[in-house]
Amino acid sequence: MTLHNPFTATVLGIPRIGPRRELKRATENYWAGRIDAGALRAVGRDLRTRQLTALAAAGLDSVPVGTFSFYDQMLDTAAMFGALPPRVADIADPLDRYFAAARGTETVEPLEMTKWFDTNYHYLVPEIGPATTFALQPDKLLEELREARELGVPARPVVIGPLTFLKLAKGIDGAAPLDRLNDLLPHYRELLRLLAAEGAQWVQIDEPVLVTDLTAPELALLRRTYAELAGVPQRPSILVATYFGRPGAALPALADMGVEGIALDFVAGTTVNDVAAVPALAGKLVVAGVVDGRNVWRTDLDRALATLGTLLGSSGALAVSTSSSLLHVPYSLDDESGADAALRSWLAFGAEKVAEVRLLATAVHRGTDAIADELSTARAALASRATDPRLRNDAVRARLAALGPDATRRAPAAERSALQRERLRLPSLPTTTIGSYPQTSAIRQARAALRSGEITAAQYDERMRAEIADVITLQEKLGLDVLVHGEPERNDMVQYFAEQLDGFFATANGWVQSYGTRCVRPPILFGDVARPAPMTVRWIEYAQSLTDKPVKGMLTGPVTILAWSFVRDDQPLADTARQVALAIRDETVDLQSAGIRIVQVDEPALRELLPLRADAEQQYLDWAVAAFRLATSGVSDATQIHTHLCYSEFGEIIEAIADLDADVTSIEAARSRMEVLDDLNAAGFHLGVGPGVYDIHSPRVPSVEEITSSLRAALKAVPAERLWVNPDCGLKTRGPAEVEASLRNMVTAAQSVR
Ligand code: GLN
Ligand code: ZN
User: Fold this and answer.
1) Where would I find the H helices in 567-685?
2) Is 707 one of the annotated binding-site residues?
3) What is the CATH number of the domain that holds 478?
4) Which family, according to the similarity comment (predicted)?
5) Are 48 and 88 in the same domain?
């Protein structure tokens, strides 16, 4: 080693919602006017103090500072460089201005929100135009740095790098955000100077965009950016953090520049050979992400130590880290009492990962004898996981092995559609909804009452049936053609299934931030998946018993179930997907046997798991499509399969959507102005399609004229016999009054266009 080790143990970022979701509550109280800004800021400060102190006490000798956020780190970056959209500029209070950009107000549209790489976190998309005038406003970061130093914490400020910030931004008014790099860089330079003046020894600059495919001009921008930043005379040492994949060609480019350190994600594919192949790294600090920052499994310490041992030879100095920010995992296993001892021993949440990082760093620098006890505990846990009977369900494996190619094949679409037309006798332009109806307070109260034991399961069922009856009555009254039961019994479209399938563990307190104050509790998929009993049949059957119109069975697809869970890492995702698909397939068959004529299998997350690099896309799409087809090909050709897709730009996966071969695909299109229909046509798609005719993400009731013109636009791209009429997503977040008014207008519009 040529460098003195500046630090040895760290993590790339930390969760911020609070171990008990304190920040969520405080923020929502602030929005509702129940507390003032001072009280909200005090909650933030208190959480940071507790967390930073705990991290230092756990033995991290460099602690990330500045990953705290009242809403989102991309939004914080936009605020720091004076790049909030001009439409919020009139809002005087900085906190309210910030929240207005995040959530909108009565009069102001919020920024768009989209997925942070291939995680379940959503960031706000900054808007950068020719008129954006950058102006450094570093107070938040400087204050948090000061705060940490006052606590005696070895603080390392973290900022999102200029390339990632601009590349993820949306160009407006004809600008390509990266064209504004030259105007932005001086502000980053000034920030580095200020951080040094504030005593920062290191700064972490996050550039996850380096693990995606970059063009040659983008690589040139990378060189220019870091040459400029490294050239700042008085600055902290620079650690450029990459995560979520391999940096590829960006690694040698970056190593050539004068930055002092690079963080690499060895969990998501970076290899020791990648490092050895770049001689310049022998003069730099390598921060080795060997502890998975975004999944919940205990680290294989022996394997991590082997990686670290090799890296010692090819890096100038070595620090141990998580592969990414801990934003993506729950705080601590301490709050998880429901897991049995074995399962618990296989897991590591945030606090446990910090301990793993510390142990590994100790072993690297003082030898494995120094951690002998912990190492044997970890080995025993791993051995128990490998041999636990719940990890293998031989019946499921045998069934999957026995499936022939016919298992994913249905009759040609035209034959199916003739059979279904005959059986369903729907009018042209059939109207339907995506599944959920408003989750009313009565529903939430019933669920709470069941949890607290105030009502029995039978009483709960009674209340849900009453909700279903109401929703059926409403749909009949409105004159919809294909009805749904409304999903009142579902707390969440993935968790509901996870709770009923073998192989899943539903956490009690494993909250992670999805966006802003929205938190989710992804279930943990730890073993072979099997369906011990039907999961939805009794509800759908009941709904169908109330009406002569067809009621759609409503299921969540295998890819979405994986995307929104913490998934076992001991076998390929594709194999796990097949097991989930088999369970869903059994459910579709049971629904059919119960007399259900239409089954919808939702795959809103199909686009989300798309790999970050183009060369890995096809393999993913192959298994994802195969899993969907396995789930949906067990029914007869006369049973109509629907699917629903949303939350994304579908351009890149349009052929995969056609390959799903669903009889009807409802797709979010209210905002992308039906472009998706042209794309589908171009991909040779010739099945039923329901482009959302209005946007359910807003409380506004769409007028009959608006929906009519939406439908007429759709009819230019799709013949009437293939067109369905539906909103663009489920209605669970809306209020009953707007839903009724909106659907009434939708039905009227469909009738008038017919
Ligand atoms: N069927 C689900 C619902 O209506 C679909 C939700 C989704 O697309 N995310 O709520
Ligand atoms: Zn949707």
Assistant:
1) 573-593, 617-632, 654-660, 675-682
2) no
3) 3.20.20.210
4) Belongs to the vitamin-B12 independent methionine synthase family.
5) yes
Domain stop point among 387, 403, 422: 387
pLDDT band at residue 670, thresholds of 50, 70 and 90? low
Ligand 1-lining residues (CB < 6 angstroms): 434-436, 487, 493, 554, 602, 604, 644, 646, 729-730, 732
| CA of residue 433 to ligand 1 center, whole Å | 10
Atom of ligand 1 nearest to the CA of 554: 1
The pLDDT assigned to 700 comes to 86
Nearest C-alpha to atom 10 of ligand 1 is from which residue? 730
The predicted pLDDT at position 671 comes to: 59
Spatial distance between the Cα atoms of 56 and 14, rounded to a whole number of angstroms: 13
Beta bridge partners of 524: 505, 566
pLDDT at residue 235, as a whole number? 97
- Would you call 363 exposed, middle or buried from its count of C-beta atoms within 10 A (0-12, 13-18, 19+)? buried
Phi-psi map region of 595: left, alpha, beta (phi>0 left; psi -120 to 50 alpha): left
> What's residue 1's pLDDT?
39
Helix (H, G, I), strand (E, B) or coil at 412: coil
Q: Tell me the CA–centroid distance for residue 439 and ligand 1, in Å.
A: 12
601 within some domain = yes
Q: According to the model, what pLDDT value does residue 668 have?
A: 86
Q: How far apart are CA 324 and CA 309, in angstroms?
A: 20
Tokens describing residue 58? 């756990």
Span 491-507, average pLDDT:
95
Asked if the structure places residue 542 within a domain, the reply is yes
Read off the pLDDT of residues 68-86 as tens digits, 9 standing for 90 and up.
Answer: 999 999 999 999 999 999 9
The pLDDT of residue 604 is above 50: yes
CA of 104 to the centre of ligand 2 (A): 21
Q: How confident is the model over 390-448, as pLDDT tens digits? A: 999 999 999 999 998 888 899 999 999 999 999 999 999 999 999 999 999 999 999 99
353 and 423 housed in the same domain: no
Is 729 among the annotated ligand-binding positions? Answer: yes
Which residues on adjacent β-strands are paired with residue 9? 320
Would the annotation count 22 as a binding residue?
A: yes
CA distances (Å), origin 90, targets 86, 98, 109, 442: 8, 12, 14, 39
C-alpha angle 549/550/551, rounded to 5°? 115
Mean pLDDT of the chain: 95
Whether 30 and 39 have beta carbons less than 8 Å apart is answered as yes
